[in-house]
Amino acid sequence: MRILLTAAGSPGFLTLYKSLSSYGKNIEIFGCDCNSNSFGISVLENGFCVPPAGSSNYIEEIIRRCK
């Protein structure tokens, strides 16, 4: 199973990441944030930067990355 967590720089990210990670080794967690220096992006192997949520191409970029 693949899971995308947005707002990887938010205060609750680490708690959510740990919780999801505890379900087993068949889960691949991706994280994204508009800040390339966010905590979540730095700790994940599958972290990446996206435009801010208010940007006109935010949804397009999320969908592109999910595919």
Quick recap:
By secondary structure, the chain is of the alpha/beta class. The chain has three helices and three strands, in the order E-H-E-H-E-H. Strand 1, helix 1 (13-21) and strand 2 form a beta-alpha-beta unit.
Structure, described:
The protein has helices spanning 13-21, 39-43, 58-66; strands spanning 2-5, 28-33, 47-49. It is built from 3 helices and 3 strands; from the N terminus they run βαβαβα. A 3-stranded parallel sheet has the order 1-2-3. Helix content is 34%, strand content 19%. The model has no long low-confidence stretch (mean pLDDT 93). By secondary structure, it is an alpha/beta fold. The radius of gyration is 12 Å and the shape is globular.
How would you summarize the topology of this molecule?
Blueprint: E1 2-5, H1 13-21, E2 28-33, H2 39-43, E3 47-49, H3 58-66
Parallel strand pairs: 1-2, 2-3
Oligomer: single chain
Largest sheet: 3 strands, parallel
Number of strands: 3
Mean pLDDT: 93
**Low-pLDDT segments:** none
- Run of helices and strands: EHEHEH
Which structural class should the secondary elements be placed in?
A: alpha/beta
Shape verdict = globular
- Helix-residue proportion: 25-40%
Radius of gyration: 12 Å
> In what order do the strands lie side by side in the largest sheet?
1-2-3
Q: Per DSSP, what share of the residues sits in E-state strands of 2 or more residues?
A: 15-25%
In angstroms, what separates the terminal alpha carbons?
A: 14 Å
Total helical segments: 3
